[in-house]
Amino acid sequence: MSFDLWGEQAHLDPLPILARMRAEAPVARLLDPHQGAPEWVVTRYDDVVELLRDTRFSKDKRKLPAGAREMYFRVSELDALDKHMLFSDPPEHTRLRSLVAKAFTPRRIRELRPMIVESARRLLEPLRSRGEADVLEVFAFALPITVLAELMGVPVEDQDRFQGWTKTLAAPPDFDSLRRMAVEFHDYLVEFVERRRREPTGDLTSALIEAEELGDRLGTVELISMLFLLIAAGYETTGNLIGNAVWALLSHPEQVERLRGTPALLESAVEEVLRFAPPVKNTIGAYPLADVEFCGQVIPAGEKVVASLLSANHDPSRFADPDRFDITRSADKHLAFGLGSHFCLGAQLARLEAAVAVEALLREFPKLALTGEPTRWKEGVFVHGRTKVGVTW
Ligand code: HEM
């Protein structure tokens, strides 16, 4: 059985392929399109939930059996940036997560709202004199990078470099670019953390330096890795969420009308976008440390397993008529932010940014519509976003 999850058809519409996988091979062994390494893809909602809670799978590459590590992790320059919680298991993960939780508080996120609203306004202002643009280019990705820079206390003039590094990380053109990015980004973060140690401010970086749990603190490598993770996990994802929201809403004009008529639907509209077009289509890999039986399949030690969040969110056993976009549905059980111990730390921030972005766009541009230019899903095994979202207003 073969499922071309990374081919041309998947970039046009992956849903029929995923439906076939759920029916015929719910735990399927495919080959990674770039590296040719085995990758198990779990597609049914219930199985995805089980996988994300299954402690037999490790996220820590340092524990992988010989051979597996070299097969999946080829860019050693990234090692200095990946001592973070997404690549760790308990008790290390628990320790890192409780330290960041001290700094990344719901209150800090709530307090960002005025800054996000103002950033959105500033980005949309110059667009008035134009009549047409690609939302991804002029707005969707500019907002999260501004927000992350503000949150972390990074100078505005460094934003372009940030954007370049995160873009390379999300969709590396080749291994050399990835290596270069890792080195430059690492050196930048080392210098930045040093500066904050000398001159603490009220930003998240200073709070992370200060964070202490039971007498324990983040070491420098952990601190740099944590900052790297926040940027890596928070930029491309949120940019695509905003892009997917504009695309999904404007491709369903009746839903936009509904939202304009009932602004209280904003939150549920964002949840439905997260369900319908989750910006992270697959979780990063988890690896069984010994051969395991999972949902009737034997998965050999060290082979990568990912959960298809896109497929789980379109599983008819969980969501009625799942391929229909409906902002009034109660989509709160979607898995766009994952589940279990690695559940997205930035979920509230992402929701807030998307809500502010959609609200600002609809308010500023009452005639907002898609240009109808062709667009499809981006290539890549992780991110799920449109290549372009052309709009007129
Ligand atoms: C729409 C936007 C976002 C989506 C769809 C998203 C999705 C996810 C998913 C699926 C995971 C779990 C990955 C896995 O298990 O392999 C995750 C983890 C994580 N996310 Fe997000 N994310 C978003 C935005 C953000 C933001 C804005 C931040 C922070 C600034 C963030 C920080 C993190 C961190 C730190 C983790 C690792 C948590 C852990 O390992 O305990 N994310 N995210």
TrEMBL record:
Q: Does the keyword Coiled coil apply?
A: no
Species lineage: Bacteria, Bacillati, Actinomycetota, Actinomycetes, Pseudonocardiales
Keyword annotations for this protein?
Answer: Heme, Iron, Metal-binding, Monooxygenase, Oxidoreductase
Q: What is this protein called?
A: Cytochrome P450
Which GO terms fall under molecular function for this chain's record?
heme binding; iron ion binding; monooxygenase activity; oxidoreductase activity, acting on paired donors, with incorporation or reduction of molecular oxygen
Please name the InterPro entries in this protein's record: Cyt_P450, Cyt_P450_B, Cyt_P450_CS, Cyt_P450_sf
* Pfam families given in the database record: p450 (PF00067)
Report the family membership.
Belongs to the cytochrome P450 family.
- What is the superkingdom listed in this entry's lineage? Bacteria
Q: By its UniProt entry, which CDD domains does this protein fall under?
A: CYP107-like
